């Protein structure tokens, strides 16, 4: 499966199958949430939250690809990501794009 954030793939012609998406809502456990709260006092990178968001993007991408495979797609073009806070310490990540089949 080819995944790109452009609306084309060099040297390939394709037909659009439709919008595909994958999402997840992730949170950290209370212990890590408290430790990251203390980190905001002194500043610096919140590594536990970076890890959480990386995991969430990977899972959302995997779910998007599974949906595309279900349509018989060869690729997903014009991929985008969005995130939003659901509550303190929890975030939703969505990956979406257009599933395409090569002609």
UniProtKB/TrEMBL annotation:
HAMAP family: UPF0145. PANTHER family: UPF0145 PROTEIN SCO3412 (PTHR34068:SF2), UPF0145 PROTEIN YBJQ (PTHR34068). Belongs to the UPF0145 family. It comes from Eubacterium callanderi. Gene3D superfamilies: Hypothetical protein apc22750. Chain B. It holds the Pfam family YbjQ_1. InterPro entries: UPF0145_dom_sf, UPF0145_YbjQ-like. This is UPF0145 protein H0N91_00550.
């Amino acid at each position: 499966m080819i995944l790109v954030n452009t609306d084309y793939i060099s040297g390939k012609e394709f037909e659009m199958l439709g919008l595909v998406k994958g999402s997840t809502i992730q949170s950290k456990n209370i212990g890590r949430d408290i430790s990251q709260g203390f980190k905001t006092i002194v500043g610096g990178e919140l590594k536990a939250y970076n890890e959480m968001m990386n995991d969430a993007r990977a899972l959302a991408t995997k779910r998007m690809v599974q949906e595309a495979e279900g349509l018989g797609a060869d690729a997903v073009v014009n991929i985008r990501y969005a995130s939003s806070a659901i509550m303190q310490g929890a975030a939703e990540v969505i990956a979406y794009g257009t599933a395409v089949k090569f002609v």
